[in-house]
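Exercise 7. Given the encoded structure of a 310-residue chain, write a plausible sequence.
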């Protein structure tokens, strides 16, 4: 590995300091923000919660902060599930937490989890299908197995969330405060699913499929008040992207991460969790069938040299 240090200019150093301060401010949001109860009485499922730096964990904590009644949290790797459960119960003792080690692309597990929510709480209000996988192979090096694995983990898992999550959300239960069908299904797609240049071909194809699932599902679930949307993150520091950040920091070029987008920086999991909260809450009651980019503006433009249009 080339460990050559990259010396940043004074301007770049100042920008890096501003970015670092801004990131720290965002990451401490839950420590300072009041609990507004945006998700009061809502029963929520979140998949892909296992990474300590991940979007799923950040979303689970954010949903708890906003008063979710019961969180059902799933991940394929059970290592960090006890810590997450403990962290939520310690800080938010009014929130019920159930964790499950399972594959988000396993139909039996997903249908069973939706049925468990109905059995225990009588309703399901939010399903955040966040579990995902990213490969890094070039076109010629991508095997059929890698391609299909990306489609299974990224796209099939979302299909199952919509199929079984919507079936649960269609059920009414006046005794539990739900007198009509209603719910919000949120899926983590990617800026890579919007256009080329943000991921490998199999990853990008699977995330484009997720975006399509949202649009088609929203139409098939018309007049049910069940909304289906995707969040399309740009470059976010998570366990999945950790090697990119580690390499840059070893070379001394961390200040250049995310420099190609209009905000000039990378994002963090809390920023995606905030978007998920918006879609989970009634604040987004008229948002449906949308692919919402949360990428610092990366997908807003074709490649261009600033100030030149040709």
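Solution.
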């Amino acid at each position: 590995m080339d460990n050559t240090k990259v010396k940043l200019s004074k301007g770049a150093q100042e920008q890096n300091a501003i970015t670092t301060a801004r990131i720290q401010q965002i990451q401490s949001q839950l420590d300072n923000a009041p609990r507004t109860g945006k998700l009061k009485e809502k029963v929520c499922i979140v998949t892909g919660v296992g990474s300590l730096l991940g979007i799923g964990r950040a979303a689970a904590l954010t949903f708890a902060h906003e008063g979710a009644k019961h969180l059902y949290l799933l991940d394929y790797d059970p290592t960090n599930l006890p810590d997450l459960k403990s962290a939520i119960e310690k800080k938010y003792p009014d929130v019920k937490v159930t964790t499950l080690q399972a594959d988000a692309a396993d139909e039996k597990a997903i249908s069973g989890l939706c049925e468990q929510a109905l059995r225990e709480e009588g309703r399901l209000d939010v399903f955040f299908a966040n579990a995902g996988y990213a490969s890094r192979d070039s076109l010629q090096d991508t095997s059929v197995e890698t391609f299909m694995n990306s489609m299974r983990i990224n796209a099939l898992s979302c299909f199952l969330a919509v199929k079984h999550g919507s079936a649960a959300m269609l059920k009414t239960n006046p005794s539990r405060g739900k007198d009509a069908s209603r719910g919000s299904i949120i899926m983590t797609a990617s800026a890579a699913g919007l256009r080329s240049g943000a991921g490998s071909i199999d990853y990008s194809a699977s995330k484009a499929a997720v975006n399509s699932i949202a649009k088609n599902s929203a139409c098939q679930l018309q007049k049910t008040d069940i909304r289906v949307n995707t969040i399309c993150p740009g470059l976010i520091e998570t366990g999945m992207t950790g090697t990119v950040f580690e390499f840059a920091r070893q070379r001394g070029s961390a200040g250049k991460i995310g420099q190609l987008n209009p905000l000039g920086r990378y994002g963090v999991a809390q920023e995606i969790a905030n978007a998920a909260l918006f879609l989970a809450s009634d604040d987004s009651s008229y948002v449906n069938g949308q692919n919402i980019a949360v990428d610092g503006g990366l997908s807003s433009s074709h490649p261009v040299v600033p100030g030149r249009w040709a």
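Remark. The two ends are 37 Å apart (CA to CA). Students should compare their own answers with the one above.
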